[in-house]
Amino acid sequence: MSPKFGDYLRKARQEAGIKTQQQAVQELQKLGRAVSQGLLAQYETGKIKDPDPNLLCLLAALYKKDYLEVVFHLIREKYSQCLDQEAARITEERWRLWEAALQPLKQVDGVPDLEVFQLRAKTSLIQQEVLNAEGLALWEKNYPHLEVVWIVASAALNDKSSRILDSVIHNMKRRVQMVYFVRGEDVKTGGRFWQLQRTLSKVQSAELSKEDVKLPVPVELTADQLGWLNTDLIIANPHWQEHSAGFKYIRRGRVGPSYAVRMSSFELAEMIHVLRSFAGTQLPEEAMEKVLPDKLFNSGSHQPSNPDSPDEIVH
After folding, report:
1. Distance from C-alpha of 144 to C-alpha of 142, rounded to nearest angstrom
2. Average pLDDT for the chain
3. Distance CA 195, CA 187 (A)
4. Which one has a higher pLDDT value, 113 or 254?
5. How far is CA 36 from CA 24, 31, 33, 43, 164, in A?
6. pTM of this prediction exceeds 0.85
């Protein structure tokens, strides 16, 4: 057994308010298991190669730990040596995911007997394609053959705290048309889209010429339209069915997206149809070509006008 697992058992005992090993032995006796202080010391120093599962179960109960959590720490330390060291970063995040999944869940508003439904919901969410803000920015920045991006943003636009703004600038450099569906007041002087334009104009004047980029285009939505959407969205290549994809934002707080969940093909097609209808009610016909080039739901024969080189594509 690994010394790290022994350290875990020792810390668990101390966190439970049991200061000494001898005190733990006395408590185990009350639970019907006679254990010597010397044996417990061997557990806490990692000298036991094959821990007794029945004793671990009692220690979990005594230390107020979930038994699966205890076993998880044992497996992690005992068998992790065989893992690919080149994938250490991904492996570490996978372990963190397992550990988080094993944490006891809090009752929702004190209502009992909901844990099984919480677990089912979390299992369903884990099975979906989910990204955090940093991952979403990387996805947007490296999406292959990207031509048009639709962004529905009801909150922060000029987000300098994550890599999202960097991905917008990167896409401007590769002549991607960014389209923002926003509230009317966001486009006015001092509004959020107006502030985004100012930020991007500074970058443009410092790094780019006007001929090198496609400036972002706003589509003003009414409060009712934004309310109907009920969430923020990002859609890549909405005009090209075979290569379109989209995520829904999940926010925690008021600044920037925290997480994003991949939309199903059915939901994506519905959102593209709805947003196209909204844009048609707000923009003159000649402006629609920027928002949605005339390739809606192309069968796949279309070749992208600005393909990325193979070295730049991240699959």
Report:
1. 6
2. 81
3. 9
4. 113
5. 10, 14, 10, 11, 58
6. no
Q: Give the whole-number percent of the chain exceeding pLDDT 70.
A: 81
Structure tokens at 250: 């999940």
> In the CATH hierarchy, which fold is given to the domain comprising 130-291?
Endonuclease; Chain A (3.30.870)
Q: What ranges make up the beta strands (E) of the chain?
A: 130-132, 148-152, 177-183, 217-221, 233-236, 245-250, 259-262
3-state secondary structure of 182: strand
Q: What is the pLDDT of residue 247?
A: 94
DSSP, res 242: G
Torsion of CA 42, 45, 46, 51, to 10 degrees: 40
Would you list the domain boundaries of the chain? 3-103, 130-291
DSSP 305: S
Nearest to 180 by CA among 203, 200, 161: 200
The CA distances from residue 301 to 288, 293, 296, 297, in Å, are: 22, 15, 12, 11
pLDDT at 254: 55
For residue 302, the model assigns a pLDDT of 44
Half-sphere exposure of residue 302: CA atoms within 13 angstroms, side-chain side = 22
Contacts of 30 (CB under 8 A, 6+ apart): none
How far apart (Å, rounded) are the C-alpha atoms in residues 95 and 9?
Answer: 18
* pLDDT digit string, tens, across residues 194-245: 888 888 887 766 666 666 678 888 998 888 887 777 778 999 999 887 789 9
Residue 276: pLDDT above 50? yes
